[in-house]
User: What shape does this take?
Amino acid sequence: MYKRILVISDNIFMCSNFKQIFEELSLPSVTVSYGISPFSNRNIFEKDLKLTVFEYDLRCNQQVDEIIEKFDLVLSIHCKQIFPNNLVNSLKCINVHPGYNPLNRGWYPQVFSIFYDLPVGATIHEIDEHLDHGNIIDRDFVEKEIIDTSYTLYKKIIQKEIFLIRKNLSSIILNNYSTIKPENEGRLFLRNDFNDLCEGDLDLKITAEELINRLRALSHENFKNAFFIDKTTNKKIYISIKLEYE
Ligand code: 0FX
Assistant: This one.
């Protein structure tokens, strides 16, 4: 059984949900500490979680050594940092990933799921030295509809992640879960793939369906993703799409 757990997250919504699920388990002998990366605002997390939150920079060897010394399980729940090899090889590290491994490894899974018409879902897996690659503890699909954009699909995936955390957390803490090996290397998308998708070429000949799907993949609330350069003014113009049933 793991007794000294560190949750590293940069997503306050996921972190609060995790905290509530853990508290419902009522395991007095288990301590959970919460950490964020240097990119997040500690005050926001502390105010919401109502406890002290630590900041860990995983690029700093000394801080990684401190984690290895203090904890026996690290959970990554939407953490902006890549776990270094010495961390994942020194203690059990588990990731909650907003994609269905190995089909949607890496960056913004729902974006590439819409663009390439891939199934999508959520996964809990052990972390190894490669991105979203370790043995799978649990995973499940979410339904993608024709009117889904990145935003609406992301919201469904988050709910699936919370469902999977609730379903698996006690067996993870008790260390009596089983795993399966990913079937293959799957698809890995990176930040650059997303950036490439955002830049639209006005002379590109594609079908209306392809254009709609590209815009669906890149429409996420107020984020400025898809753009083209106006040929007259040379200005960048952002574009997004909204779809709804009759
Ligand atoms: O919590 P999270 O979904 O992402 C975090 C980390 O930032 C990310 O590096 C890690 N791979 C993931 C598991 O956990 O929050 P977010 O605000 O970074 O992104 C949420 C969604 O927002 C994303 O799926 C797509 C959308 N988005 C985000 C940014 C920053 C955009 O469409 N455009 C953007 O510029």
